[in-house]
Amino acid sequence: MSEKVTVGLLGLGVVGSGVIKLIENHQQKLAHQLNCNVRVKRVLVRNLEKSRDVDIEEDLLTTNPDDVLNDPEIDVVVEVMGGIDEAKDYILKAFASNKHVVSANKDLVALHGPELQDAATRNKCDFFYEASVAGGIPILRGIVDGLASDRIGQVMGIVNGTTNYILTQMDSEGVSYENALIEAQKLGFAEADPTSDVEGLDAARKMAILGRLAFSTPVDLDDVEVSGIKGIELEDLQYGDKLGYTMKLIGYANFDNHELEINVQPTLLAKTHPLASVKNEFNAVYVYGEAVGETMFYGPGAGSLPTATAIVSDVVSVIKNMRLGVSGNQFVEPHFKKELKAPDKRYAQYYVRLYAKDEAGVFSNISALFHDQDISFKRILQTPVNKDEVAEIIFITHQTSLQNFQHALEKLKGLDAVLEVKSYYKVEGDAIS
Ligand code: HSE
């Protein structure tokens, strides 16, 4: 083993700068653990002139990817440039030159992870991507190593900080979705174009990666059903609160009898659930294992240094494997063939809010309609609306299949007395209110 291991970086944005700082600041600890120094030799950037948030010798910077990918001294390539096609091309070239790769790129790993993993294994290289899910939280290692002995049945995650910040502000400050989003943008928690966060796509990518590793089945991004938080109304958070629930954007994955259910959707979560206490921009992943029971991994889901800890820890693992001569051996083919769970086997509770005519018999019609689908109500609220003879009705069902709930909802929309179904959400857990 040489006295130093040499790293090449693709990208020097917020996360790349964090990697440089962390390697520099923690050099002693790294050297102690690895018995060698870790040195960054080249960094691919788009613009050599740009001012940066990190001290770096100018001659380390290059705009030519070959300076990183074809340098025989570079052992490990760290991809923090983002995007899909170019990043994928560079990573494949790195494997072809027998370089190990550490990536933070969730979009790429969610879309092409298995193909990249395959290329890594063929070239006896390591490919690690801890930073792609929940930034600084070591959740992938938690699942793959920490829970290697268990059978995981359920993973639930608050894996998007932007939406968690918006929902927390709506809940605690009573502000609308639109105003909470503007505030999040001002504070830098939300991007100028927040589409991929607020529409749930960012969380879906992370859930696809989590699902693959937790259940050892080949989850595709398209398998993840997604609905985001755009346009969520404050009223639903307030009624949820009255009933003992808090609104969260939950990534949910369940594997039972070798059948997979995986989705991202706004969910009214019982305040007693461990994930309900995760506020603002923080992330957390709740994992239920058959033997271990409930576990939860909590921490920062983004940010320069937190994300850099995941990346540099991956670099440490790469170096340990190099030393042991076991690089490229970690990948295990998915154990189970993918079977998506049909709607008649997907069980949940649901919250519904609607406007109805405030007249005799309306409630019994609604309840008969749900009874026909074998759905019973757990909680009911009715409040008068500031319009003549209109009532707002809120109810939470007991567990029902998605199929029966969808049938009931269709019929509900067709009832004469129902003026508008305002909203409906999945409910998770049992509230005490
Ligand atoms: N945009 C992500 C979030 C951070 O809001 O959590 C990076 O994954």
Under the CATH scheme, the architecture of the largest domain is: 3-Layer(aba) Sandwich
Unreliable parts: none
CATH topology tier name of the largest domain: Rossmann fold
Return Rg in Å: 24 Å
What is the number of domains? 3
Structural class: alpha/beta
* Shape, principal axes of CA atoms: elongated
Counting DSSP H or I runs of 4 or more residues, the number of helices is 14
Q: State the CATH superfamily name of the largest domain.
A: NAD(P)-binding Rossmann-like Domain
Major sheet: size, sense and barrel closure?
Answer: 11 strands, mixed
* β-strand number: 17
What is the CATH domain class of the largest domain? Alpha Beta
Distance between the termini: 61 Å
Q: Report helical residue fraction.
A: 25-40%
